[in-house]
Every structure is written in structure tokens, then in C-alpha cells.
Amino acid sequence: MSIENRLNELGIVLPEAAAPVASYVPVVVEGGFAYVSGQLPFVEGNLVTGRLGENVDLDGGMKAARACGLMILAQLKGAGVLENVSRVVKLGAFVNSTVDFTDQPKVANGASDLMLEVFGDAGRHARAAVSAPSLPLGAAVEVDAVVALRS
User: Fold this and answer.
1) DSSP of 36-62, one letter per residue?
2) For residue 43, what are the β-bridge partners?
3) Are 67 and 41 in contact (CB under 8 A)?
4) Contacts of residue 8, Cβ cutoff 8 Å, sequence gap at least 6
5) What digits encode the pLDDT tens for the residues 72-127?
6) Secondary structure class of 75 (helix, strand, coil)
């Protein structure tokens, strides 16, 4: 089954791939891999901002991470490689959080669970989930990705 068909089956509509906000490209394809720059969480066109443990709750953080995952998929589609993904290799999740917030892994599950929904076992990946004192544009979460591609 194609990824587009799987997304349709799940009722998932990808957002428009966001343009870079600085001097970088959204996706680099090299050596059989696609490296996706950190993606911010847009829900209905609005950036999800705030800090976990302060003014964003765990559920909101998980939804923000899922939105980052959707943008990763949108960037892969925009680069013309979404249908060539053979495996999600690694996600890096950065969580804008207070010093006493310790549920970064649960927040990151928002993106991780999406990859499993879309790619099945090929969506299982290595991952980092870390706290950050601030993120670009005040985003609550940022997620980047490395995916392996079929040749």
C-alpha cells in the first residue's frame, strides 16, 4: 500500500510543507537517507507555542509533537521521497519545558506514535527526547528526523 493511501485510510491530511525560517533547507537526500530539518508544530495554520510544565499541558505537548511529525511527512512529500521511505531511522524531539518537567519522552510519543501509525514496523525508530529552555519562534516542540530510502 502506498503511503498516500495509508494516510487516506487513517484520515490524515498533511499540512503544506513549511518554508525554512533561516539559512537551511528542509530536507537533504544523501547516501540513501533523507535528513529532515527540525519541524515546528502548526495546527490549523497556527504555531503551537508555550512551555511544557508552565502553560502547555502534557496532552497539548503530545499534540504539538504529532503536528511536528505531520510536518516531517509533508517535507518528505515536498522533497518527492515520501513514497520511497523504507524506514524511519531516528527522531530527535526538543521540548520547550521548565527545569522540573520530566515527561519529554511522553511528549515525543506524539511524533513517534504517528510514525508507527503511518509506516507500521518500519516506523519504529531510535529517538532522543530532550528539554530545551526555548525553541525557535517560541514553539512548544521541535522534531527532526532521519529516514532511510529505497533506491
Assistant:
1) EEEE--EETTEE-B--BTTTB-HHHHH
2) 46
3) yes
4) none
5) 999 999 999 999 999 999 999 999 999 999 999 999 999 999 999 999 999 999 99
6) helix
Which amino acid appears at position 133 of this protein? Answer: P
**Residue ranges of domains in the chain:** 3-16+32-149
Fold entry, domain 3-16+32-149: 60s Ribosomal Protein L30; Chain: A; (3.30.1330)
**What letter does residue 24 receive in the DSSP assignment?**
S
Render pLDDT for 27-53 as a digit per residue (tens, 0 to 9). Answer: 999 999 999 999 999 998 899 999 999
The alpha helices in the chain, defined as continuous H runs, are 3-10, 58-78, 104-119
Residue type, position 124, single letter: R
Cα 94 to Cα 8, 27, 51, 66, 142: the distances in Å are: 28, 18, 11, 13, 5
Q: Quote the cell numbers at residue 15.
A: 499540512
pLDDT interval class at 151 (50, 70, 90): confident
